[in-house]
Design goal:
Layout lengths: L1 H16 L13 H21 L4 H6 L12 E5 L6 E8 L10 H15 L8 H13 L8 E8 L7 H14 L6 E6 L1 H9 L9 E11 L5 E7 H11 L16 H12 L4 H4 L3 E5 L1 E4 L8 E7 L2 E4 L1 H13 L1 H4 L3 E8 L7 H9 L7 H5 L3 H14 L2 E3 L12 E3 H11 L4 H7 L8 H8 L5 H22 L4 H9 L1 H9 L14 H5 L2 H20 L5 H6 L1 H16 L23 H8 L7 E4 L4 H13 L5 E4 L7 E3 L5 E2 L1 H13 L11 E3 L3 E2 H11 L22
Parallel strand pairs: 2-3, 3-4, 7-11, 12-13
Antiparallel strand pairs: 1-2, 5-6, 5-9, 6-11, 7-10, 8-9, 14-15, 14-18, 15-16, 16-17, 18-19
């Protein structure tokens, strides 16, 4: 049977994705070798389509498999949920259904994830670069960091090796030490076969459903609603399993926050489930009462073609809880809606599915807007400061000079609190800052509006300076400028005179003028503290979210700022514009040692966030713009494939940015031009010098690559 299924999947991959996936890097292959590469990439595209619904064209463009893919084959980014979700796919095709995934694959894939979390996007190949601009926006620090799902798309039916699975889970657990950022799932032959067959692959669910205290809607379309017990729902799921979710936008995710809360309710207070749950919506092809049923009583309904379109996680959590502890959870009950599609217009079922899954849920923050403390603050903002203080979600936010929101106030108060751990809590998913203990620690019982407003202004000043700094930083430093805003604000606040913060006559503007310079030092000292205490490969996002780590980093940074020592400088690797004279001539070294073969094809990759923002679309319009031919010449080593002319690496990098955006700024070419699978020119030169046993030092007065241009943002 698996052979037949493989053939079906193969045929659909060929029909859907032929001509839609970039195969130019393997054009030298032919016959079955080339087709096998195509099938593997097409499988990655199909995995993207399963996880993030999109057109065949869009899913084909998500594939970046090839040289410098860093163990990953495709990427999809969905910014609609909060937090955003990033899907990273590794695909293994096999005509025999034996698609392998070993420990080396797991190590390489996790190294790719590490590079992504450190914002080292230039380490990936040119096909990845078209997605880097959106990743910059996801990791800009203005929103909660996205969640990453690793998808192993394996053309096989056997589970992955236990040692491989344990290795993968161990590495993911390390990344999730502070907060869950990464998870993984395996898609196998059964998933792909179900996907290519569409609705026909899902077993048709026919069942009898009992509703207690039911009501009904007759017009314009038939529907019934009522209560089902936990045992009844568990039995329904146990009989039909995943077939019950055939039309759902997403399957039942077992480890989501929603599932954890539902299972906790069923364990601690199952009688509260009906009140705490949003309920379950089931679309049915037909609904028919099996006996005379009177509204308000008990009704048994024969349903055909039933599918849970909202509440899949609720169903899954109920089943798990009932299976583990039936005696406790059996008293739980939940609201259920049955909607018949018998007389509905075409597409109505899809509309129900989409709308029931995209409505805004009630959050803990919404309950805090009812707190009298917030109403008092709102009145004080208006009467004493002539400013707006918006406490409810959905209300129009005031212009920056005219007020702030409850959320911004909470973040500011978390940043300036004497205990740095509140800054870490505020950087986690927003729900934690609204938990009662944290909320009361920040606002207290009688907060002063003037103090709150001045703290908000400080946070804004810090963020504005960090936004400026981020434009000239790369990698970990850029991540620090994005996600270290509350930590830096905490450190800066301790350097200011805040003794009379609530006094009307206090000159707070004079203190704010000191902020830009203080931010620069606080950023550097905080980053150095993280590197020193937790290593240069630790993740910035984890450091600013972990209560223990943020306290230690804040102490070290403040101790440094209070010392009489000189202000440290960021290392060259963290700057988009390294200082001249920090390394020996990279291009000259490569030529003298003959490191790169004549005629080798180099690849341009934007180095900083501004370059990605300005150049991504321009580079994608014409792939020849990203490539140049190398020659071992004393000058003008690169022949740009776009115009056939010869340039120096830095000169061409500068020219390209100018043509793309009109920005004329010096650019260090060796960190932007890559020999695929080998590294950047700068990295190649560094390795070549080490191998040749040359001194790796500073040549007096020498520029990094021996050219007039030095790097710019």
């Amino acid at each position: 049977m698996s052979v037949v299924q493989i053939r079906s999947v193969r045929r659909v991959l060929e029909e859907r994705f032929t001509g839609l996936i970039d195969m130019s890097d393997v054009a030298h292959l032919s016959g079955d070798n080339l087709h096998q590469r195509f099938l593997s990439r097409a499988l990655a595209a199909l995995a993207v389509q399963i996880e993030h619904q999109g057109s065949d064209t869009a899913c084909g463009q998500a594939v970046f498999d090839g040289e410098d893919d860093r163990g990953l084959d495709a990427i999809a980014i969905d910014r609609r949920p909060r937090p955003a979700r990033i899907c990273l796919v590794q695909a293994k095709w096999s005509d025999k259904g034996k698609g392998g995934f070993n420990e080396a694959d797991a190590h390489k894939m996790m190294e790719g994830v590490e590079l992504l979390l450190d914002l080292k996007f230039s380490k990936f190949n040119r096909r990845f670069q078209q997605h880097a601009k959106v990743l910059d926006e996801c990791y800009d620090g203005k929103t909660v960091a996205p969640k990453i799902t690793l998808v192993l798309a394996l053309m096989r039916t056997d589970p992955i090796n236990r040692d491989v699975r344990e290795l993968l889970e161990r590495k993911i657990k390390k990344l999730n030490d502070v907060e869950d950022m990464v998870d993984y799932k395996v898609l196998d032959l059964r998933d792909f076969h179900r996907a290519v067959l569409g609705d026909a692959a899902a077993p048709k669910v026919d069942s009898t459903i009992r509703l207690e205290g039911f009501g009904q809607e007759i017009s314009p379309y038939k529907a019934f609603y009522g209560t089902m017990t936990v045992p009844e729902i568990a039995e329904l799921y146990g009989e039909h399993r995943r077939g019950l979710f055939a039309r759902n936008i997403r399957d039942a995710l077992d480890l989501t926050d929603v599932n954890v809360k539902i299972r906790s309710t069923l364990t601690d207070s199952p009688e509260h489930l009906w009140y705490f749950s949003n309920g379950i919506t089931i679309l049915c092809e037909t609904i028919k009462a099996t006996r005379k049923a009177v509204p308000g009583g008990v009704g048994d309904f024969l349903v055909t073609g039933a599918s849970v379109v909202n509440g899949a996680q609720t169903v899954n959590a109920i089943y798990k809880s009932y299976d583990e502890n039936p005696d406790v959870s059996r008293t739980g009950r939940v609201l259920v809606r049955l909607i018949s599609l018998e007389d509905c217009p075409p597409g109505f079922g899809d509309q129900v599915t989409t709308n029931t899954n995209t409505q805004n849920p009630i959050e803990e923050r919404d309950f805090k807007s009812l707190d009298p403390v917030q109403n008092k603050l709102r009145d004080e903002f208006a009467l004493e400061l002539s400013l707006a203080y918006v406490i409810k979600r959905g209300e129009k936010e005031p212009d920056a000079e005219h007020g702030c929101t409850l959320t911004e106030a909470a973040e500011a108060l978390a940043a300036v609190h004497p205990n740095a751990e509140y800054a870490a809590v505020a950087k986690r998913e927003q729900g934690e800052i609204w938990e009662d203990d944290t909320y009361h620690a920040l606002f207290g019982t009688d907060p002063d509006a003037r103090r709150v407003w001045r703290c908000v202004r400080l946070l804004r000043a810090v963020r504005a300076r960090l936004e400026e700094k981020r434009e000239e930083l790369v990698w970990r430093a850029a991540s620090m400028a994005s996600y270290g805003d509350l930590l830096v604000t905490h450190v800066v606040f301790r350097q200011l005179d805040t003794r009379e913060l609530s006094d009307q006559g206090f000159d707070w503007d004079a203190q704010l003028k000191r902020v830009p310079k203080l931010v620069d030092e606080a950023l550097t000292r905080s980053l150095q503290a993280i590197d020193l205490e937790y290593g240069p490969t630790s993740h910035i996002i984890a450091a600013v979210r972990n209560t223990e780590r943020i306290r230690q980093v804040a102490r070290m940074a403040m101790r440094g700022m209070l010392s009489d020592g000189p202000v440290p400088q960021l290392i060259s690797d963290y700057q988009a514009a390294p200082q001249a004279g920090r390394q020996v001539n990279a291009v000259k070294t490569l030529i003298e040692l003959g490191t790169i073969e004549e005629g080798a094809i180099l690849e341009f990759r934007p180095y900083s966030a501004p370059e990605r923002r300005e150049m991504t679309e321009w580079l994608a319009e014409e792939p020849s713009r990203t490539q140049a031919v190398w020659r071992n010449s004393a000058s003008n080593q690169l022949q740009w494939r776009h115009d056939g002319e010869w340039y120096s690496p830095s000169g061409l990098a500068r020219k390209m940015r100018y043509e793309a955006s009109g920005v004329d700024r010096a650019a260090q070419g060796p960190v932007r031009w890559f020999l695929p699978e080998a590294g950047s020119l700068a990295e190649l030169a560094e390795r070549a010098r080490a191998e040749a046993n040359l001194l790796v030092g500073v040549e007096p007065g020498g520029a990094p690559d021996g050219e007039a241009d030095t790097a710019g943002a």
